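Question: does this match?
>
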Amino acid sequence: MNKLNVKIGNIELKNPLICGSGEQFIELIGIEKALKHGAGAVVIKSTNESTAAKVQLHKTDYTVIDSNFKQLPWDQTPPRDASLFNRSGLHPKPFNEWLELAIRADLMAKKYNSYAIASLIPADLDKLIEHAKIIEASGIRVLEVNVGAPHGDEAVKGAIMLEREASHIKEITQKIRDAVNVPLWIKLTGQSSEIPAMVKAAKDAGADAVTLMGRFMGFIPDIETGEPILGTHAAYGGPWALPLTAHQLVKSRKLIGSDFQMIATNGARDGYDMIRFMMAGASAVQMTSAIFTDGYAVIDKTLRQLEKYLEQKNMNTTDLIGLAADRVKTYAEQDSKVDHWRKFTPE
């Protein structure tokens, strides 16, 4: 067995690095570049039936923000603590053209012992089910349904569905599972107070895995001009989000157990971040923002770092999953630090 192999439901990935859905994967050439650089899977830019969601892509904008909330130029490698701030839309092509691209992408991915993942974002549930059936019939091997797209509240009404309640997640997942047998991943929002409950709802309704969690919406004023950066609210993600995602991974693992696969996203910039996510309970990790800011070479770098770490520790990738999560203690179980707080008291 390869040290990097992981299982997600009934499929096996050659490594746990998944390129998350993004603008790089609108066209076949970008998908192929990610595959050539070694990605275990690539999620194709998401689609649905909404014309407004496609038009929204033409109004996208992106900027890299440093820790002082200043915009950085795209033509330089950003510091590790930089974040991506952007607004976005869905794949610009009609569904039938998107499907043709997705079929070609997954056939190509097979040659690299990898997967090209079809990605749907709901607008109308009946149409979502119809598209899921078409995707399964086409032979595409895995479907991700993103019910947590961060732009949902800002998009034109009816263009993108954003779900925050476990009961809704269960209903949507159950309807998809009743309609298709294709391996199904449900991608969840980070903008909810009941993320572990949503994970359980997706699991109970028949999902093969969940991806968590989507980026947060933010608003950043430019203090020089008094204008909103990018002119509006936008999705915000960066290394600072890793502990937030990891926290929800651990809480979800405690609720659902260790026999259900979770895929982490939002915060991974290198192989060490992948290790952190996996130790928190993820079986694989989606990288998106790092590819935006650092290019496809970040895939090679990340996999080299992961491989080197495993060699040094004499471990396989699967040994990492939940390693730290299963050692978590409650506050009550912590060792006492007598008067530890006094070091912060002024003399």
Summary: Residues 95-111 form the longest helix (17 residues). Residues 49 and 193 are 29 Å apart (CA to CA). The mean pLDDT is 91. The first strand starts at residue 6 and ends at 8.
